[in-house]
Design goal:
By secondary structure, the chain is α/β, with parallel strands linked by helices. The chain has 12 helices and 18 strands. Strands 1, 2, 3, 4, 5, 15, 16, 17 and 18 form a 9-stranded mixed β-sheet that branches. Helix 4 packs across helix 7, helix 8 runs parallel beside helix 10 and helix 11 packs across helix 12. The chain is globular and about 65 Å long. It binds dihydropyrimidine-2,4(1H,3H)-dione and zinc ion (ZN) (2 copies). The site of one zinc ion (ZN) has 3 residues, from loops.
Length: 487
């Protein structure tokens, strides 16, 4: 009997805690053995000199997503997930995005259909709730969470997506009742609107002024308000795309008080600054994202916050818009910064950028790289141990990294459909040369070997991250609230 279907032999296996030389024996879709001198496999991959890492888990990506404006982003599930696979990522969690007036159930069904048709990596969905009506929260949400959609994203800004504080409380409370996790885009909407008006009235409409229109203080303020709302409900939260030192400090303080606040940042906030958007003409549009790119001192603060455990995840926030009339320039040839869609492509570049900065440049060990890009997101979002580590019984999702391979990003080699990369000209050392999904090689010799639709939906129940502390605010405590029974 053939012992293994595939043996990855002689590489350095890296998990979030350990690095060791071992063969990885794969049977079917799962990891069956780790050891030295494993029996021969039906297929063998020589991994000597390579790092054998879990396939990345990208827990924040906008794929084939319709904006509230009606604009579709540049990717299909096929193109986005192919780009993810080329960058060493084997699981993505994109969004099923409700807009006002839409049935959440129909929205989720629709995104399922798109992913079933196109995805080449495994996937789950976060549900964006933009219309938290009674019917959405009490009728549609419970069966959707039970069906494996255990996370909800909400926005505190964007004209047609934002929830007011009362609606935020409604969603947090519904999440608590259904044991779902909540992620939030937290910026102060009024500050952005007010600053934008002032800038435009003064004639400051070039792309770079987008960075000025999202005040730094608006991030810390929204984080503080959100954390207060979450404390009232006793609902754990994830704060998305932290961009400022002040924002990271708010999170540190809340965690220091024992609050269940999780947080992520993204490569663009670690490697780019607002100088990158300061380009002639409309070129800066390529770097418009929200929150905007900040300062180098923020980069240092974000790395520190990661090292201290205040931030746990580095996701891409992949939000691709081509630099043409289908995307960034859809409002015509002379748009103001307000008319340019927000977002950068990032599924492909996320891991190589981070590997280069952390592992090749020896800033952090490879274990931290694995933790922040695969294991922690898998744990927080309820995918672990099936996804996010190299563990016996887990899915055989593996990326073989050549630590000496150098690659220079260029618009010509972009695998998604943005038609540009914000990283053009940047050279990274370290590249995922072979990528394996559930035991099958999907990227090898610079080629994709997975059929569209071969990625699989992974239903999730919320993990311990979503468990309330059991420390309700006094107003919910009958001993404090004159015996009012509130839940
Ligand atoms: N900002 C978002 O809120 N989402 C997508 C990308 C972006 O820049
Ligand atoms: Zn966001
Ligand atoms: Zn996003």
């Amino acid at each position: 009997m053939q012992s293994f279907d595939l043996v990855i032999r002689g590489g350095t296996v890296v998990t979030a805690t350990d690095s060791f030389t071992a063969d990885v024996g794969i049977r079917g879709e799962t990891i069956a053995a780790l050891g030295l001198g494993l029996d021969a496999g039906r297929r063998e991959i020589d991994a000597r000199g390579k790092l054998v890492m879990p396939g990345g888990v990208d827990s924040h990506a906008h794929i084939e997503q319709l904006a509230a404006s009606g604009l579709m982003n540049a990717d299909t599930f096929e193109s986005a997930t192919a780009s993810a696979a080329f960058g060493g990522t084997t699981t993505v969690i994109p969004f099923a995005a409700q807009h006002v007036g839409m049935s959440l159930t129909k929205v989720v069904d629709n995104y399922h259909r798109l992913a079933e048709r196109g995805s080449v990596v495994d996937y789950a969905f976060h549900m964006i709730i933009a219309d938290p009506t009674e019917s959405t929260l009490t009728k549609e949400l419970p069966p959707l969470v039970k069906a494996g959609h255990s996370s909800i994203k909400i926005f505190m800004t964007y004209d047609r997506l934002k929830l007011d504080d009362e609606q935020v409380l409604d969603v947090l409370s519904a999440a608590r009742h259904n044991r779902a996790f909540v992620m939030v885009h937290a910026e102060n909407h009024a500050m952005i609107a007010w600053m934008s008006k002032r800038l435009l009235a003064g004639g400051y409409s070039a792309p770079k002024y987008h960075a000025i229109s999202h005040p730094r203080v608006g991030e810390a303020e929204a984080f503080t308000r959100l954390i207060s709302c979450a404390s009232l409900i006793d609902q754990p939260i994830m704060i998305y795309h932290v961009s400022t030192a002040e924002g990271a400090a708010v999170i540190r303080e809340a965690r220091g008080q024992g609050k269940k606040v999780f947080a992520e940042t993204c490569p663009q906030y670690l490697f780019l600054t607002k100088a990158d958007i300061d380009r002639p003409g409309l070129d800066g549009a390529k770097w418009i994202c929200s929150p905007p790119l900040r300062e180098s001192t923020d980069q240092q603060a974000l790395w520190r916050a990661l090292a201290q455990g205040d931030l746990q995840v580095i996701s891409s926030d992949h939000a691709p818009y081509a630099f043409d009339q289908t995307g960034k320039l859809n409002a015509g040839g002379d748009p103001t910064f307000k008319q340019i869609p927000n977002g950068l492509p990032g599924l492909q570049a996320r891991l190589p950028l981070l590997f280069d900065a952390m592992v090749s440049k020896q800033r952090f060990d490879a274990n931290r790289f694995v933790a922040w890009t695969a294991t922690e997101p898998a744990k927080i979002y309820g995918l672990y141990p099936k996804k996010g580590s190299i563990v016996i019984g887990g899915d055989a999702d593996v990326a073989l990294w050549d630590p000496s391979k150098e690659v220079t990003f260029s618009d010509a080699t972009v695998k998604d459909r943005s038609n540009y990369t914000p990283w053009a000209g940047r050279t990274v050392k370290g590249w995922p040369v072979t990528v394996i999904r559930r035991g099958g090689v999907i990227v090898e010799n610079n080629g994709l070997q997975a059929a569209p639709g071969s990625g699989r939906f992974i239903p999730r129940t919320a993990g311990s991250a979503a468990e309330p502390l059991g420390r309700p605010a006094p107003e919910f405590d009958p001993q404090f609230n004159f015996n009012a029974k509130l839940d």
